[in-house]
Design a protein that fits this description.
With 68 residues, the protein is mainly beta. The protein contains one helix and three strands, in the order βββα. Strand 1 and strand 2 form a beta hairpin. The radius of gyration is 13 Å and the shape is globular.
């Protein structure tokens, strides 16, 4: 699937699960060949300046359709 946000996009392998609530997407942040942070928010906490990588709005598309 292509995961796209206002910041960017990344192609990831999708695996449906009943452990994730409908309307939510969970992605591992560790695979070095596909960094999901390319599609996360670039917002930071105003006090600690830590990046807000934990949530953002995304659109999902089949990867083949996204390239067409």
């Amino acid at each position: 699937m292509r995961v796209t946000s206002r910041r960017g996009s990344v192609v990831l392998t999708a695996r449906p699960s009943d452990r994730v609530r409908p309307g939510l997407v969970f992605a591992l942040m560790h695979p070095l060949d596909r960094l999901v942070n390319a599609a996360t928010s670039d917002e930071t906490d105003p006090v600690s300046f830590q990046p807000e990588y934990k949530l953002c709005a995304v659109r999902l598309q089949p990867a083949a359709a996204a390239q067409a």
